[in-house]
Design goal:
This protein has 183 residues and is α+β, with helices and mostly antiparallel strands. It contains 5 helices and 8 strands, in the order ββααβββαβαββα.
Length: 183
């Protein structure tokens, strides 16, 4: 699916991730120093393959490769927070969808690209009429992603302790997203 993006950015599309075919590409992304908050800095290629093979076999967690004008440029993960990631950490509501995204590290950043990616990710998630609210839980120290989240309508709820990190639980309804991107 193609999602409209900011002027001058180009087309952003999604396709299901192929854990074996895409593992080398993903390994380069998730182990890059700019991807420290992804928490896979020391992962070997086999670790990346295994992690995404497990996800591919999980009916409650899905990964998508994001393409910028047909070229791999970002990763989106979609999960059911009532069954993965946030079980027991908050009270899920019907229509809640959890999300992670990672923009590929680059030496030539394009102004506005990451914001266009998170906007496209949110539009993709809300293209499913069953999605009422998107839930995220970034590291409390990831100030850059907190600003991006706010730009697309996320409202922080509270800090939570996950096994691997202290996270900022935040929510964005369809209406909050539409208001944020239309202003």
């Amino acid at each position: 699916m193609t999602t409209p993006t900011a002027a001058g950015i180009g087309a952003l599309t999604f396709r299901p991730l192929d854990p074996l075919k895409d593992a080398v590409l993903l390994h380069g992304w998730v182990t890059h120093p700019k991807s420290a908050f992804w928490m896979m800095q020391d992962a070997e290629l086999v670790d990346v393959e295994r992690a995404y093979m497990e996800m591919a076999a999980d009916e409650h967690h899905h990964a998508y490769l994001g393409l910028h004008d047909g070229v791999p440029a970002f990763l989106m993960e979609k999960y059911d927070p009532a069954r993965r990631e946030l079980v027991g950490l908050y009270e899920p509501e019907p229509g809640d969808v959890g999300m992670h995204f990672l923009v590929a590290p680059t030496d030539r950043p394009v102004h506005g690209f990451t914001r266009a990616v998170i906007t496209a990710v949110m539009a993709e998630l809300f293209s499913d009429p069953a999605t009422a609210r998107v839930v995220v839980e970034p590291d409390v120290g990831n100030k850059a992603v907190h600003a991006l989240n706010a730009a697309v309508g996320f409202v922080p709820d509270r800090e939570i302790q996950k096994p691997e990190k202290k996270a900022l639980l935040s929510f964005c309804t369809r209406e909050q997203f539409q208001r944020a991107v239309s202003s």
